[in-house]
Amino acid sequence: MAEVAVGRDDVPAHGEAERHAGAPPPDPTPDASAEGQFAELRSLLVGPERRDLDALRDHVHDGAVLTREVSHVLPEAFARRGQDPLLARSLAPMVEDAITSSVRRDPKPLADALFPVMGPAIRKAIEHMLASMMESFNRTVEQSLSWRALRWRWTAWRTGRSFAEVVLLNTLKYRVEQVFLIHGESGLLLQHVTAPGATGQDADQVSAMLTAIADFVKDSFQVGSGEHLDAFRVGDLSVTVEQGPYAVLAGVVRGAAPPDLRQSFREAVESIHLLLGTELKDYAGDNTPFSAARPRLDALLVTQLRDDAQRVPYWRWAIVSALVLAGLGAWAFLGWRDRQRWATYLDRLAREPGLVVLSTASTNGRYVVHGLRDPLAIEPATLIDGSGLARDRVEGVWEPFEAQQPEFVTRRAMALLHPPPGVSLAYRDGVLSATGPASDRWLVDAERLAPALTGVLRFDYAGPTAAAQISRKLEALSILFPKGHAEILPEQTGTLTTAASLLTQLADALRIRGARAQVEVRGHTDSDGSDEANGPLGTARADAVKRILSVPPLDGITLVTHGVGPAEPATSGTTEHDKVLNRRASLHVSIIEPESLH
Amino acid sequence: MQKKICLLGGFGVGKTSLVSRYVHSIFSDKYMTSVGVKIEKKSVHVKGTDVDLVIWDIYGQDDFQKVRMSYLRGASGYFLVVDGTRAATLDTALALHDSAQQVVPGAAFTLLVNKADLVSQWEVREDVLERLRTKGWRVLKTSAKTGDEVDQAFLGLARAMLET
């Protein structure tokens, strides 16, 4: 840089010299010559200085150089002006902007940098909070269980103070409620701290008045110079005053302050003077610097409880713990019992046919069950009673449905079909079966209606039909004849009347089902006599019975005769009595069902 | 910013009633006769600064030598209060001023000639006040009854204290 400057500086000088050494100027006027000489002279006289000057000018205008040089002096400059509030004020907005933009870009680096500071601070704050919570809890537990506490509650109620305040005042050994840092000469208040919960009047005026009183005492009682009012007491309240060269520390103490409290005040005054001596000496009304004394004042706000109040009454703890444990135990037991009862109820519901539990829920000691219920099933609420739960704690929401269990299908069938006495219904695998003596009319209805029941695919009748029953009764009849004859005896009229009546019933039963019957009248003889004689005799006996029974004729019943002789005896014996029983006519019914009619 | 100021004046010049409407105090007037001073407080705003004035209202006696001048220590300014209808109170005030300047040399002050509402009965002559003004004194005519000039008195003194 300097070389360039020198070169440039030399150029006009050489130029001048060449002009003079070479061809003379075309018009060498005396003025021009003088100017040239003057320039040369100047170059000779101040040439080196000009070169330095030019070098300096370039140096100053070169940004890179300037930056480098300023960077060397900047730290020292900051260090020198470090105490100057103006520097801090002017830097503050830039620092704030820098922090803001750094956090916006990526909060992590700043968070990382602050972490070691924040962690302990937060921990300390939490510890402090927990400690004060525990202290207040301990005190409350200690104090809540005594006659004294009741008395204090009464006092609190009477005086309108909070119970905590009354407890504190009664268990307090001493407490430093307020600390004033007062400017000695003017009595102006520099700093003031108050214990949590303590109250005080306008501190500025109190501070001035304290100073006035100290002056008053000093003036009134002619104390020696260097002696001061250092304490005064009203009831259980005292004011401890500690005098420093420029400032006074006054503490308002409730209760009996120990001697070492004064020592703490003494040390605090000394350390405050050490820290803020200049500011105190030159004080002109600006309190800002004295916030630095605050931690020392806060440290003086001591609360000391009475020893007896601090002692933990173990038996009370034991009682409280026992009560708490008992309470917890009872709570746990009742909860367990409720759950057992609820499980029992649900179990009973599950086992009860016709009830289907879909979902259950329990909230705040109340239970809700959703499910399906067959109208024929038991009322679910009646199952609660045996479970031990109170009915009003259980809400049941039941939707109706038709259960498929056999007993429900059967009960629904009973209700629908009304089976006659002696007929019983049973359901299995989709088949509803009826057993017992059922009338054909009922069976017809039952066959038609049963498939309409849910779950019933088919109706089945396993018992004898009415027609079959009548047939059996007819087949049990015997119309007896005298030996060798086919006339109807008068004493057989009753049997024939019965047979006619049964035939009429049979015709009715057949008509309902659309069936028909062929009734064969068989004529029998005893074993006496020849077959040639017995054959026609049997036929004659059958014809005689048929003649009587065919009047009046019956729809659906065809009467046919068949002489069987002695071939089908009623009894196989050969006594005269047996022979009487074998001389007879019998009826044999063949039912032709409708499907076989076609 | 806070400043201590004092109210000085002879007995019955109406110092307390002059300021009572403009200040705040937690203490009763009993303190005046017992301790000999009553503390009051007033906030003013001058020259862009909030100034809390802690006012020491010092019990006035016509025998000024009995006034506890130690109460003046550390004061940045004071009012001298005179009863315009009693010329003797001006003499007391002047004597108090001399004493005060010994305790707080160079402190700002203002002379308040009270009872401006009874100006027809005044014994304090205007030319005397004028002479004091030419000496550079701030002299205000105030009235406890009407409140004339009381606020101006506080503002003026506060301004003067900030200048010194």
Structure commentary:
The complex is a heterodimer of chains A (about 600) and B (about 160). Chain A is α+β, with helices and mostly antiparallel strands. Chain A has 5 domains: about 1-65, no CATH class; about 155-310, Beta-Lactamase (2-Layer Sandwich); about 315-400, 2-Layer Sandwich (GMP Synthetase, Chain A, domain 3); about 405-460, Histidine-containing Protein, Chain: A; about 465-595, 60s Ribosomal Protein L30, Chain: A, CATH 3.30.1330. Helices cover about 55% and strands about 20% of the residues of chain A. Chain A has helices at about 1-20, 30-60, 65-80, 85-105, 105-145, 145-160, 165-170, 205-220, 260-280, 295-300, 305-310, 315-350, 380-385, 405-415, 440-450, 465-475, 495-515, 530-550, 575-580, and strands spanning about 170-185, 190-195, 230-235, 235-245, 245-255, 305, 355-365, 365-375, 395-400, 425-430, 430-435, 460, 480, 515-525, 555-565, 585-590. In chain A, strands 1, 2, 3, 4, 5 and 6 form a 6-stranded antiparallel beta sheet that branches. Chain B has one domain: 3-Layer(aba) Sandwich (Rossmann fold). Helices cover about 30% and strands about 25% of the residues of chain B. Chain B has a 6-stranded mixed beta sheet with strand order 2-3-1-4-5-6. The two termini of chain B are about 15 Å apart. The model of chain B has no long low-confidence stretch (mean pLDDT about 85). The interface of A and B includes residues 208, 209, 213, 216 and 219 of A.
Mean pLDDT of chain B: 87
Q: Give the mean pLDDT of chain A.
A: 83
Shape of chain B: globular
Helix count of chain A equals 19
What are the salient characteristics of this protein?
heterodimer, A: 598 residues, alpha+beta, Beta-Lactamase, six-stranded antiparallel sheet, 19 helices, elongated, disordered N terminus, B: alpha/beta, Rossmann fold, six-stranded mixed sheet, 5 helices, 31% helix, globular
